[in-house]
């Protein structure tokens, strides 16, 4: 059961990683600074757009990380609940075995 839960979490992590891989588009600033940074205004515009893009990506990453953390916490709680139930069953069956030994 634990292997299935781990595999499920792994699949969810991989699917989330895919969401964060961004393809270049016309809206995104170039990854390297333009060669024409002769004016302070053009340099400022470039670095400001880079900052805004990174800020947006960080916000998306933080939101999806929080979602994933909540899902993982639910999975851990469910696994702990299953473990407690199975431990109780083991204990109960142990008592039953002892009763059969006495008879």
Put the structure in a nutshell.
By secondary structure, the chain is mainly alpha-helical. It is 80% helix and 0% strand. Residues 22-26 have low confidence and may be disordered.
Helix content: over 70%
Gyration radius, rounded? 27 Å
Percent strand: under 5%
Low-pLDDT runs of 5+ residues are 22-26
pLDDT averaged residue by residue: 80
Structural class, please?
mainly alpha
Helix segment tally:
2
Outline the structure in words.
With about 100 residues, the chain is mostly helical. Helix content is about 80%, strand content about 0%. The chain has helices spanning about 1-20, 40-100. The longest helix is centred in the last third of the chain and has 63 residues, at about 40-100.
Topology of this structure?
Layout: H1 2-20, H2 40-102
Helix pairs in contact: 1-2
Describe the structure using short key phrases.
103 residues, mainly alpha, 80% helix
